Amino acid sequence: MNDAASPSARLGLGLAAVGRPAYITTDRDHDLGEPETRSIDAMRERAHALLDEAWVLGIRYVDAARSYGYAERFLGSWLAAHPERRAELTIGSKWGYEYVGEWRMDATVHERKEHSAAMLERQWPETLAALGSAPDSYLIHSVTPESPALGDAGVLERLREIAAGGVRVGISTSGPHQGDVVDAARSLADSPFSVVQATWNLREQAAGPALARAHAVGWTVVVKEALAGGELARFEPDGDVGAGHDGAGLDGASLALGVARAQPWADVVLSGAVTIPQLRRGAAAPPREIDVETLRRWSDDSGEYWRRRAARLWQ
After folding, report:
1. Tens of pLDDT along 294-306?
2. Which pLDDT tens digit goes with each residue over 283-292?
3. Taking a C-beta distance cutoff of 8 angstroms, is the pair 120, 171 a contact?
4. What separation in angstroms does the CA of 193 have from each of 8, 172, 188, 213?
5. What is the CATH topology of the domain spanning 10-310?
6. Contacts of 219 (CB under 8 A, 6+ apart)
7. pTM of the prediction?
8. Domain positions in the chain
9. How far apart are CA 178 and CA 192, in angstroms?
């Protein structure tokens, strides 16, 4: 997956937004219909349709997590129906959060974070059961500087055991200090990690240098939230992003995904599409190289970006 000669990152399909009825992306009522129509059966059908279309489009990377509602279960049932496809796919999943929303739109809490050895021991077999086989990579979900995981000898030893069984282990990151976390995980003595999934988009670019360092030593780098939770899905008529850009005719999502795919350290860029037209537009988005000064102009302050994200409502 980590091929320095590749001209651009591959597109992957992330299932965060289709494994549960509520999520923090924008325009969900428009994309999914009214909340009362988001039954488990309806969302399973949507996930399977997206996976079918992704296969047709040549997308071979699929991302899930224990906390993405029933995403692992939906993916597992699709894999069971198409066992001949598994060998061509790269499946990533994550542990460290659990879904506690009980398929309710009005849940007070939708997910709970715990980076303990006990959580890993519980969630690893749950992932195996849901998917029907081991994922290709298994990441600690949303590691921040406050997480105890990188200093927990029990967690690290168990991850080394999982890695010895042929599964690549890694971390996903979030928050304004993603780069510090990536560097810390990479610098661990006898580090078990070789994969990172991090937020990078036109609004939040702070992790880029650390992701480049990880890529340089052979880590697989997966970009998530390339559309900033929907903020970059379309241009604003008087907005700064896209202003003066030469990609006439590109919609906001195509530009944002294309720029992410053009980053030289990125191996996979996840599409969070919840409709087939969205997925098709993403698959057709060409890589777009943008000069450093323009990228800097489009970027927000990292702290402000994450404060804005934290205030977003589950929809």
Report:
1. 999 999 999 999 9
2. 999 999 999 9
3. no
4. 23, 11, 9, 14
5. TIM Barrel (3.20.20)
6. 2, 170, 186, 193, 194, 195, 196
7. 0.94
8. 10-310
9. 18
